[in-house]
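To whoever picks this up:

The parser on our side crashed when reading a file containing two proteins. I've narrowed it down to the boundary between the first structure block and the second sequence. Both blocks are reproduced below exactly, byte for byte. First block:
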Amino acid sequence: MLDVNDLHIEIEDSIIPETVVHDFDIIMHPGEIVGIVGESGSGKSMSALAIAGLLSRKDMKKKGRILFEGEELLTASRSRLREIQGDDIGIIFQEPMTSLNPVKKVGWQIEEALRIHRNLSDDELKSAAIAMMKDVEIPDAERLYNYYPHELSGGLRQRVMIAAALICDPKLLIADEPTTALDVTIQAQIIELLKRINHERNTAILFISHDLSVVRSLCSRVLVMNKGRIVESGPVDEVFEHPGEEYTKNLIHAIPKFQKIATAIDNHDSKPILEVKNVSARYKKITGYFQPGKKQRDVVKSASFTMNEGEIVGLVGESGCGKTTLGKTILGMLDDTDGEIVHYSNMPQMIFQDPYGSLNPSKTIGWILEEPLRINGKYTPNERYERAKKMLGLVGLDESYLSRKPKALSGGQRQRVCIALALMLEPRLIIADEPVSALDVTVQEQVINLLIKLNRELGIAILFISHDLKVVYELCSRIIVMKDGRIVEQGTDDEIYNDPKDPYTKQLLSSAGYAK
């Protein structure tokens, strides 16, 4: 069905052209599930986007062969590609919130490919969309058809993306990191959904991921990419059990496991750095757009906990449970709140989940890092520059990065810049909101080690928000578990993992594959 041979992709929008994909080959048969794994910047997504015909024709040079059912796609006209895209080849992107149109209802967006490729009435379009929503297990499809993307949880938005990709019953589905930012229970549901779609529709799936455990549970064959090249390929069990390349061995070794990689500083006799007392929080809604006068639902409900100096505390729970909202509330980013928050430090900072979305794309890294000091107004330009250089050095990046813009950095490098930015004002408390969820396993391991290093050397306390219980186990000494806006359980890592009391905590650990 798909035969890609000697694919080369060269980016020409810089002074020195850069080849990002070398000699890429893949053959796929109908109904087959093939995985592509590798670190950020290894060429996984670029290769898939070339197959889907979604790469720019202006600043990219492509050569080789991409045959889909015998037809050459690499040199096909734009109009012919439009006939194939969404009809014969569907694609699920990594981040549904940025891939879905925020001003269109989800039902309209699911229908879009049908409007382009089929001649159907409005009623037929709606019926097909609702049927597809039900097929991908979106609950209450008739009601959610009229929702906007921001009104849905991350897991439901991903299901909307899958429904939109499948609406024309494509022969090939390209899934680009579709489970990366999802919690363990939703991730398992999406994987089961893709397996069912593959079995029932015989849809071939090209599954791109840096999560090797997910690839192993879904795919029959895997390709390992490094620096734009395929370095190893074969049946998934064979590659995982007997990797031939050192790079593959390192990838497998870096998969998070339920083990401690290091310990935080000893904070046995330390003082409190944060007290959260009966805090509730809700988001204000625009009168007129939402139902006026309706009492807003609490996203965080009567949360209470204390953090000590130098402590690393994990805050875990499923998507939509209120973890991020609680983090924002602690930093005073929400107005509509109740309860009491007491800080025993100045200038607490936040590391956001999406490094690319939280960095100004039009500014250099140096300008971005210096911004908090400019606002503070107490530093000369030379002092600002020297501090930015020092903070980059702390996170493992050299001075040359100061002149680059975010788009010129890999995902891991951007996350390091975000950590450096959080350090610019010398905080004693950092709230890290899913800082490694979108990173590949090797970079994830580097960032975790970096956070432990900063904790030990600078004594920074970290509230680590995550849905990955393996990462939390590696990093945190105490765990807080949230569900539906409430803290249902909190205790030491040993208490939570080995003697959980709440049924929800037990369910989370079971979904993550934890066994005593």
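<<boundary where parser fails>>
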Amino acid sequence: MIRRVGTITFLLILLLVPLLPPFYLTMGSYIGLYSMVAIGMVLLTGVAGLTSFGQAAFMGLGAYTSALLTTHLAWSPWLTLLIAVALTMLIAFILGAITLRMGGHYLPLATIAWGISLYFLFGTIPLLGGSTGISDVAALRLFGWELRDERVYYYLIWAVCLAALWISTNLLDSREGRAIRALKGGVSMVEAFGASGLRLKNIVFIYSAVLACLAGWLYAHMQRFVNPSPFGLNQGIEFLFMITIGGPFSFWGALTGATVITLLKTVLQGILPKLISQSGNFEIIVFGVMIVIVLQWMRGGIWALVEKLLPPKEHRPVISSSHLETRTQPPHGTPLLKVEAVTKAYGGLIAVKNMSFEVSSGEIVGLIGPNGAGKSTMFNLISGEIPRTAGSVHFGSHTISGLPPAQIARRGLSRTFQHVRLIPGMTTLENVMIGAYLRTGDGIIAAGLKLNRASDDRVRAEAAKQLRRVGLEESMFVPAGSLSLGNQRIVEIARALCADPLLLLLDEPAAGLRHLEKKELARLLSDLRKEGLSVLIVEHDMDFLMNLVDRIVVMEFGEKLAEGLPQEIRSNPAVLEAYLGGV
């Protein structure tokens, strides 16, 4: 109720701003434009973890494209909008294709170079007016009505901004949005459930660039004049300031940051030159101090403090049945996974050497060995997270060695990780829903327009079913980061089960679990075996493993030391010497 009242109050303030003096109306328009860019920045930087300094350049691209085509060719501004968006998407795609696969600092450096290059391009090409810019840009016309009134244009800006806010919010609460939010947990985690990390990064990068382009287009036809100065690197840095101070993880934080920085900048530009008796962009110093304070004491920004005062968000009820398609498990005993002479070398270091073993349908196979034996490396080779040096891996009738993890996941292989990989800020239910990524096919357009409600409800029901299955139904709407380590591992299993796999890879699932929790996990895995699901499990707890698995494969120094039934392995002298400490 309080949240709804707050939203209504915000909308009423927006409606009443045009009744204030012209200065506030102008500030309101600028805040709306900058908020659009900041919304894209939250999605790009705060959610997906990709830093860009080039959003001002994309804004300039939209402004200059429309200004040039409307003044020199007398084209309709609405047509130039389509051209500007298409050009922005093309350039963002090219930049993303070059830099996003590299990771690390390459994207920030590339966007800095892009921003500086475009800024100097705007200022030096005679056709673009050089440093003086392009004037007499055409005014927007809507149904034959020319939008010259600043109040009308203010409402247009905020209508577009609120539409961007609504679409972006819908996008995050969707199949693609959950995968984008999971990018911070590592690309390998997202790809383990069938999503392409590079594709998701490109989607976010292009989407944020389009929002900046749209803001630039509106800016050009509001001012009816463009020059390079609003689209330089300094403005790109200010956009980062906005989301850092407002809140990098929330779209409402983007609006808050855009409001605070825009108003504060105007105030400081009037006060600081008088105090220092010298002109200059001294407000940047103040912003820098603010950034240090925010990063030190409130990393969630201003909006995070506001969120603490608000009641928890209401969660949509979960429907009773998912009705998602399920895979048919192969007949019991059918060969499912076959590892043939797989080797992984890092230069002169051999992590895995000539490993061969099989897993049949309806079987639980344990993979054990001392620390550093190569067990997790073997898991990563099977799932495609790392490439093999030699050998092959077959899954069913397909050869999966050499395929990317997302393609392997599509064939029915699902996994957990040695070190828990959950998104702490997402609820337990949302984390589990990521596992069902491949079981629906809604794209970003359907998500943004909220046309995915029915399929999303089915995924929620499936995730709730898996949480009930593992005994964590009561923690459904609890942030995953607040759970104990043992329960987080159980959530990972529920997420893997939500993918409806044929083979489940479990990397030390009992680590951190108490005795009763291990008994419940063993019961769950036994039930899964009865249902025909195959499991390959790495585990150090021998008591847990020996009473659960059908066969055991033992590794030492990257090689297979032994293979057999649990009782055979328990009495094998080589295993006792290498792993269990001798007789």
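After patching the parser it read the second block fine. The mean pLDDT is 89. The CA atoms of residues 12 and 227 lie 34 Å apart.
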